[in-house]
């Protein structure tokens, strides 16, 4: 085998499938133009060789890492200039990774660890970003005209050890806080602020992962109910699962003063939970503790940890003020395990994921039919089936959701998540008054309930109050800035613009949401009419076609049955769907 040291640039188009879904011909034409007028000339000017083009990606080899980095920066700058003023659905954006390493030569192709690492660096880059390995940065940093930000060590897919990476973004020079979400850093609130990070499963058994996740879920819920605290929502904290980042970065990204880290180890019927509270500004350890007990004592151990965290964050707080979670405990840990396993699938807002969640929740309810959390989560899965048109009988899905939600609330009427889910279900049933009481009660119990705030935003959308809706969505985004469900907050903001009669703004927000979650094809049922109302007829037709492929039985009648906008808004959207040729029934 022939080997040589080379600088490798890997590039990939952001959201290529989404762009192709909107307008295949135009996307391919734009991509070919960019390769001809921007990518290839800049590579050639910097003495690079295009090894291969892979549909929406490219692999380039350079003899000099300085040339590779300069080419990457020039390409991103040129694309940013090209995209300026263009609508979101016309923007071709790249993620770029650059590595300096050993490569294997085979004909005109290259292979090896040097190539693999460049590809993995590209995957963690954000739109418009260039990400370098530490080796590439060491050799190029002082010889290029841009400043890269040290993003610390990161675990990359199929790379054995963490890799230190450096970022630069064409959007303002410095890289954004996280490549996966594009969210900016946040100011730290004046009140005590904390994120409970995913605990490590030290048992060596993947089947026990639920135990570690369940501990985090319970502690986060308990701390959230202390009104003087600012607590990052679970879904954002879990964005760090499996990733190695220093606490200073996490503090900046989430806007918190403290993080709680820990591990859970199970051996037979015994469990050990190790936790440490860390200040993010300087990385100082406030305290660390081990908690041992029988597996049956897991809930008591969770409560003890919560009390100590609360006391450390705010020493003046009295034990009586610690509003610990007093949800009804499951009668069997098997029900608890299945419910924890279902959690990530419940919140994905995708049809197959909701089906997986329901299968797990049904197993939990077979073991413990009166477990409120499992009942509530099952209610939310059925509610999704109704509102996202995943079932033929929408009315039946709404009835099932209401029945499960009411039963959960009867068994546990002071649990914020259960109240919020029931509020969402009543929203879809057009019981807006009941929904508001339940959602406001949930927030009174848990002022950090990001999802309850989001559902209040949706309630305001459906009630025809778009400005109030916008405020709730923004608060939810701040409480959970890395939440994988945040695309739905952007759908909510887009819907608020749609209700307010601002179709151009609505279309851009719908496209942003679809960009973040390309599989959420149900967004097209609102995007297509918004594009048409904004005068973007060709894009509206492409969106309509994407909707028809994903939902071949979609009709205006089914849209009206599923959605709960005010009558004027509902008819206005339905009229635009008619103009696009969507069948009436």
Automatic annotation (TrEMBL):
SUPFAM superfamilies: Nucleotide cyclase, TolB, N-terminal domain, TPR-like. Its EC number is 2.7.7.-. It comes from the Bacteria. CDD domains: CHD. One of its GO terms (molecular function) is nucleotidyltransferase activity. Residues 7-122 form the Guanylate cyclase domain. Keywords: Nucleotidyltransferase, TPR repeat, Transferase. It is an enzyme of class 2 (transferase). TPR repeats lie at residues 450-483. Pfam families: Guanylate_cyc, TPR_16. PANTHER family: ADENYLATE CYCLASE, TERMINAL-DIFFERENTIATION SPECIFIC-RELATED, PH-SENSITIVE ADENYLATE CYCLASE RV1264. This is Adenylate/guanylate cyclase domain-containing protein. It comes from Microvirga arabica.
């Amino acid at each position: 085998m022939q080997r040589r040291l080379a600088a490798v640039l890997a590039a990939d188009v952001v959201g290529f499938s989404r762009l192709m879904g909107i307008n295949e011909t135009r996307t391919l034409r734009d991509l070919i133009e960019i390769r001809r007028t921007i990518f290839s000339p800049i590579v050639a000017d910097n003495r690079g060789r295009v090894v291969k083009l892979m549909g929406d990606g490219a692999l380039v080899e350079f003899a000099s890492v300085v040339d590779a980095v300069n080419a990457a920066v020039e390409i991103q700058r040129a694309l940013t200039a090209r995209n300026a003023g263009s609508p979101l659905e016309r923007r071709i954006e790249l993620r770029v990774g650059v590595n300096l390493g050993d490569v294997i030569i085979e004909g005109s192709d290259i292979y090896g660890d040097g190539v693999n690492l460049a590809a993995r660096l590209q995957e963690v880059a954000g739109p418009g970003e260039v990400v370098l390995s530490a080796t590439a940065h060491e050799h190029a940093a002082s010889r290029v005209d841009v400043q890269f930000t040290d993003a610390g060590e990161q675990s990359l897919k199929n790379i054995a050890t963490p890799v230190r990476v450096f970022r630069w973004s064409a959007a303002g020079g410095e890289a954004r806080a996280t490549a996966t979400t594009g969210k900016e850093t946040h100011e730290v609130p004046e009140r005590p602020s904390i994120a409970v990070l995913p605990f490590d499963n030290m048992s060596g058994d993947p089947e026990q992962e639920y135990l570690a996740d369940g501990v985090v879920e319970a502690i986060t819920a308990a701390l959230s109910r202390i009104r003087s605290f600012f607590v990052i929502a679970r879904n954002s904290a879990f964005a760090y699962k499996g990733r190695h980042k220093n606490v200073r970065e996490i503090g900046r990204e989430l806007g918190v003063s403290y993080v709680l880290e820990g591990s859970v180890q199970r051996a037979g019927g015994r469990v050990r939970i190790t936790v440490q509270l860390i200040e993010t500004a300087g990385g100082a350890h406030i305290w660390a503790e081990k908690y041992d007990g029988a597996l049956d004592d897991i809930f008591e151990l969770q409560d003890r940890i919560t009390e100590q965290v609360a006391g450390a964050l705010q020493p003046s707080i009295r034990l009586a003020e610690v509003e610990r979670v007093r949800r009804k405990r499951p009668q069997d840990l098997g029900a608890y395990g299945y419910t924890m396993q279902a959690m990530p699938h419940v919140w994905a807002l995708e049809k197959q994921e909701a089906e997986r969640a329901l299968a797990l929740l049904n197993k939990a309810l077979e073991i413990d039919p009166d477990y409120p959390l499992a009942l509530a989560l099952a209610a939310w899965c059925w509610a999704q089936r109704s509102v996202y048109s995943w079932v033929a009988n929408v009315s039946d899905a709404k009835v099932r959701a209401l029945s499960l939600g009411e039963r959960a609330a009867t068994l546990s009427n002071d649990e914020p998540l259960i109240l919020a889910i029931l509020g969402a279900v009543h929203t879809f049933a057009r019981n807006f008054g009941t929904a508001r009481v339940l959602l406001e009660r949930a927030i009174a119990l848990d002022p950090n309930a990001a999802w309850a705030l989001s559902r209040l935003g949706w309630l305001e959308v459906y009630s025809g109050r778009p400005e109030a809706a916008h405020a709730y969505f923004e608060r939810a985004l701040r409480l959970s800035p890395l939440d994988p469900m945040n695309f739905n907050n952007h759908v909510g903001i887009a819907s608020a613009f749609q209700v307010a009669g601002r179709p151009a703004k609505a279309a851009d927000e719908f496209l942003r949401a679809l960009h973040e979650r390309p599989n959420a094809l149900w967004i097209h049922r609102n995007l297509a009419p918004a594009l048409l109302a904004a005068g973007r007829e060709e894009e509206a037709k492409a969106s309509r076609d994407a909707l028809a492929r994903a939902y071949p039985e979609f009709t205006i009648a089914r849209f009206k049955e599923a959605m709960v906008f005010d009558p004027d808004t509902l008819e206005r959207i339905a009229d635009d769907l008619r103009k696009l040729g969507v069948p009436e029934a």
